[in-house]
Structure formats: C-alpha cells, structure tokens
Amino acid sequence: MLNKPLQTINIHANSELEPHLDAWRRLAAGRPMRSPEWLLGWWGIYAEPEDELRIILVMDPEAGLVGLAPLYLQNGGGLATLRVLGARDTCTHHTDWLAAAEWEARVGEGVAQALTESQQSWKRLRFEAVDADALAIHTTMKHLTKHGCLGHQRQINSCWRISLPDNWDAYLQTLSRSLRKRCRQLQRQFLDSGRIQLMQVDNAAELQRGYEILLQLHSARWGKTEAPAGVFSDEKFRQFHQEVAGYLLNQNQLRLAWLECDGKPIAIEYQFFDSETVYAYQAGIDLAMNKYSPGKLTMMAAIQFAIARGCQSFDLLGGDEPYKANWRAEPVTCHDLRVWQDRGTARLEWALWNGYTSLAQSLKQIVPARVITRGLRLAQKIKAPFAKLRR
User: Fold this and answer.
1) DSSP assignment letter at 94
2) Contact, 79 vs 345, CB < 8 A?
3) Which of 140, 144, 357, 374 has the most CB atoms at less than 10 Å from its CB?
C-alpha cells in the first residue's frame, strides 16, 4: 500500500476544504495546534488582503487523506513566500506537516513534489519552529534541495519538555533537593491548607472572567511601555486566542486556571492539552505577591494537573529561560528552515542568509550571548518603522 503513487490537491479557498475537514481532524489526532479550528481560525484573523491560501492535501487512492501541508502564500514585502499557517506572532509551535502514522516520509515527498510543480508561484519557502525530529517537513526540505533548490537551516531556540512519571511524588524526586523541599513546603503551607485556592474555567460563562484575569496578570508581569499588555497588546493575537480558547473549552482541552489569595488572583496559566501533553502557552503573575511564590505554586498545580490526566509530558514551549531546566525540562531543538529557487534575487538572499548565520555562529564564540541578544533587539526596533512603510 505504501508504494502506490500519491495524489496531491492544492486548496486555495476555505470552501474547497469542507469535504476534507473531518479527515483533517483525524490527522490532527487531538493535537490542538494542528486542528483546522486552530490553523484556519488563525488564517481568518491574520491573513492580509494580498495573502493566498495554499494548503496541500496528500491523498492515497485507498486510504484517502494521509497528509496535509497547511500553507499560505505571503505576497507582500518582496519575494513571494510560502509560509505555514500560524507562523506570525509565533502563534503555533512544533511545526510539521500532518501525516498519518508511518506515512510521514511519503507525505514529505508528496508535498515536495507539489511545491516543485508550482514553482512559478513562489520564490521562497519559510518554515518556522520546526523540531529536529519533524520527519515529514524535513523530508520535504531534503527533497527540494536535492533537486535544485537552495536550502538553509538555522537553529532558533529550543522548546522545553518535561517527561512525566505517573505520580507527583516520583516527579518530586527528579528535582534538586532544595526545590523539592520548597515545593513540599509550599504545598503544605498554601495549597493543602486552602489558604491559596486553585480556580479553573469549566464552562463558557466563566471563560470571559478567566480571560480578563489572564490579560490583567500577564500585563502585570510582562507589560512594557511599548506593549503594556505584553504579547496580548497585539489586537490580532488577542482576538485569535479569545476565539480559539472557546473552541478548546468546548473540546475539553483548555486549562485556564489561576490561584487566588483572599479572593484576589495572584497567578494564572493559559494552557491546553491533548491525550499525551499539556502545553504551557502563556501565563501571568502578580509580582507584588512574591512572598507566596506564585510562580512556583502555579507550576506545581499545572504539573500536578498533567500527571493526574495521565499525560506523558509537560511542554513549556519556546524560549531558553533558566527556570525551565530547574523543573527538569529537556530542550527540544527548533529550527528555522528556508528554501529558495536557484535564480535571481532569491539566490542572492540565500547567500546573505548563509553569511549571516556563519557570522552569528562565530560571534557566539567570542561575544557574550546577552550582548548579541541586545544587539538583535536594537536591530528589530530600528527595522520596525521601515517594515510599516513597506506595508
């Protein structure tokens, strides 16, 4: 069966997807960030007028839909670029094609063939937040570069994941002695005593209040002058998550939970989950309540929730913050993958990207990481006004 030729279908409008949505949901296998509700919901909010939907379906004559590449064509800002739905504002993590079990490599080849046949419509491919073990999308990358395209792979950061045992006490034994002792102390002093209560959104009537607490505490922790509500300062980001949270709640996959002290929220977690993993997406903390260690308390409650559900992992997603290793999370390397056609300005850009990456790697050997980070942030601030002008 696996050796039969696969057919690819290019989808350019939501209406063309209607007959395939149930099959898409089966491929997603309950993983929230791969569902049509997440990815098409993102498209409905983030798509610019010049963008075009370019989803590739991979079909087997007997098995039906065995793979799907959720792509769109970004026409603004220079070279026509095929990107993955959910790419902007890093809404989606762990990028890969959807593929039925044991079809990953075949699906990757099928998507590559479809991209090769449509080369007149794009100049560059950009796939972000791709895990090192994402077989389908890496197979596409290898196939394209083997057949004349120019490829570039750059490590961008890591997602961090905790492998969970089947009970809380066993998990505590994996922590350092000092953190284990502190967790037990906080459990007795605040959670078991009822002095601090754990609240959670369980129905649609509670969702709006929970979302308002999330915005309030996230702003208190990460708000800045230029972004007073942190990541939620962006209207599209805020709107997308208001909508997708409702969907996740209906699917019983939302964990919007907060801690209250004397009726006042002091920490909150916005998370979602499938049968295997809890994804810690965003959070908020009242820093004025640090005497209660709200950050540790909310992490404890979230990991306990994941263990109680029988999940195998707790995913802290992107960012290399030191606290993640303290909770025994392990890094999952993520890459930014890019492909160019071997001609014109595309070839020049490929050469520049290779040069930039080589320089950055060399600098890391002689310049402290914090200096490089500050330089990149400054470059982004300088570039921002010009990016608006290009739009």
Assistant:
1) S
2) yes
3) 140
CB 360 within 8 A of CB 152: no
In the numeric block, which tokens belong to residue 362? 């060399």
Q: Which two tokens stand for residue 39?
A: 């990815």
Sole residue written with tokens 């100049």: 123
- Round the average pLDDT of the chain to a whole number and report it: 89
Dig out the tokens for 44 from the structure: 């409905």
386: confidence class by pLDDT, cuts 50, 70, 90: very low
Measured distance CA(226)–CA(24) in Å, rounded = 39
Domains of the chain, with CATH numbers? 7-154+336-390 (3.40.630.30), 165-311 (3.40.630.30)
Contacts for 330-333: CB closer than 8 Å, 24+ residues apart: 330/160, 330/161, 330/162, 330/163, 331/158, 331/159, 331/160, 332/131, 332/132, 332/158, 332/159, 332/160, 332/161, 333/131, 333/132, 333/155, 333/158
Do 280 and 291 meet the contact criterion of CB atoms below 8 Å apart? no
Would you state the pLDDT for residue 356? Answer: 57
